[in-house]
TetR/AcrR family transcriptional regulator
Amino acid sequence: MYRRDRARLPAAERRRQIVEVTTHLIAERGFWGLSMQDVADGCGLTVPGLLHHVGSKDGLLLAVLDHRDEEDIRSVNEQAPASLRETCVALVRRNAAQPEIVRLFAVLEAESLTPDHPAHAYFNERQQRTVEMLAELAVDAQDPAALARQVVALMDGLQLQWLRYPETIDLVAEWELASAALFTP
């Protein structure tokens, strides 16, 4: 069925719209609760029109994840942090400003623990890259990889608490308190 009410957008802009709509829907429902019809409706497309841009539901998921990683890396790099501690503060501040994205990643990371999830390999590789990147910044640590894993665990745990109790938990303040102990020489 052809929809006359949909706006014609350049391919890059349409893809950005698809990623934004999908991001919102996954954060709200999880990947398994996501329907291609809901994404298509949110973008004013038909399902075949949506598939033209993303290929499949798995392709849609990976497009969302890749886009968010690119945005996060760009944002943190713009702040030019010089140390592990500064990098972590930049990440926590960025995450505090985008609860929907943090929720999206928390939901997907938990769902992807099962090997049959389409993002299982993505999150395994992302975890390894994150630990390696943070370990490279932990130049003064006795065991940089262990410190990097602890940083990730602390960030993830605090983010879950913040998402559950946003009205009473200040993510940045909680990070500053907890990281003071973590980074004490």
The mean pLDDT is 88. Residues 57-79 form the longest helix (23 residues). The chain is about 75% helix and 0% strand. Residues 59 and 118 are 9 Å apart (CA to CA).
